[in-house]
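Tutorial, part two.
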Amino acid sequence: MKTKELVTIAILAALLYIVQVAFSFLPNIELVSLLVLVYTLVFDKMTLKIIAVFIILEGVQWGFGLWWWSYIYVWPILYFVVRWLKNFIRIDDSISWAVVLGFYGLFFGMLFSLAYILISPSYAFTYWVSGILFDVIHCIGNFCLCLIAYKPLYAILKRFR
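Running the prediction step on this input gives:
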């Protein structure tokens, strides 16, 4: 791995971590989804390394509980969905990307609860259902933040690359 790539991964993973902590006081309003989307469009495969560092930072900060295992697959799922959808959605179509992030926010709780199947399928289901209101907030937050910040973030990161 070249020094430039290593530094880029470190800076972008730190940015993911910082915005996650900065927005943690708001229920399910976050910039991580938007940044993963933009990172995927700009940095492509390097994004998986960025996500991996972010997930490790989260575990170090908050502990490696069962919730942490969900992060191992929840964020890469967004990466792979964006990689696939970029074949069908224009890069400059912020409305379509906002819809994608809205749906991701809506289904985040369901995806997140899959790790709880290890405890009990009924527990995983009730965990998901009890958080649907937060998923709706997550959906609206992702949609609005993407509409507002997608194009400027994409332009900045494209220049950074």
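The chain has seven helices and no strands. In part three we will examine how such features are distributed along the chain.
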